[in-house]
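Exercise 3.2. Students should predict the tertiary structure of the chain below and write it as structure tokens, then compare their answer with the key that follows.

Predict this chain's 3D structure.
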Amino acid sequence: MDASPKVSVIIINWNGLADTTECLESLRGIAYPNYETIVVDNGSSGDDVRVLQERFGDSVHLIASGENLGFAGGCNLAIREALAGGADYVLLLNNDVTVDPKFLNEMVRAAEELPDAAALCPKIYFYDRPAVICSTGGRVNAWAGTAQQVGRGEEDRGQYEQVALRDYAEGAAMLIPRPALDRVGLLDEEYFAYWEETDWCARAVEAGYKCYYVPSARVWHKTARSQAPDAEYHYLFRRNAFLFLRKRKSPLHLLSALALYFFVSGPFYLIRHPRAIRRLPREARAFFWHLASLVRRRSAPVRET
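Answer key:
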């Protein structure tokens, strides 16, 4: 019997058959001895479920959701399955990622040595620029309502070779120990897509855990392959940035971020990128969503206790 902790690798497929196939082929070459792969098809419009089943058979546990549950909902569907099956760790892995054969060994080894870890991420490179860093985990600026990937766009010169704390682990490849999931819970499905891993990591930190970057584990990310169409992306990303502040930070953080967006970063961005004005209706929709949410909350009847 293998003494290695059991890892459930979770991949969400949404009309991304070619990328998902390459990701799964990449996983076939990993050295870690005790893992399973769970693929959730998030209501793809094509023949993705049939093709994946025919190509990978019993080597992959395939779940067809029948509808697009978003990244958070699709992951939660698989996480429940993984925990019911006795997983010691859950690895959320984007379908447009390919992996180094030893990446999972390195991530589990680090997690076993860091008992306070809620989430860990590897060194992530750009797929089409394999020596350029995409992310080493992220930092959140709550006053500005922004999240930044540490090291993004930098040539790897060995400047990120130490295990390091991060505000959040990158959701493209995020390892979560079971005890953290048991305590913190699942991803918040209100986000649907974008900022859900940032929110989960913030909740974990509130519960006393930490998030780590593990440089000895390496993967390559194509970035934005499973991204929503532009209209939905700009709406969801802006909506969720402020949703995160409302849920996890103080009213002062929210007011500061709103002021910076409307009077500093937004206008200056439009000056530098005039064509971005096409995004305004989508971002306005995000703010109207929050206004409607606040109105609903104020008008909700008070329950007697």
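Discussion points: Residues 7-221 form a domain with the Spore Coat Polysaccharide Biosynthesis Protein SpsA; Chain A fold (CATH 3.90.550.60). The first strand starts at residue 7 and ends at 13.
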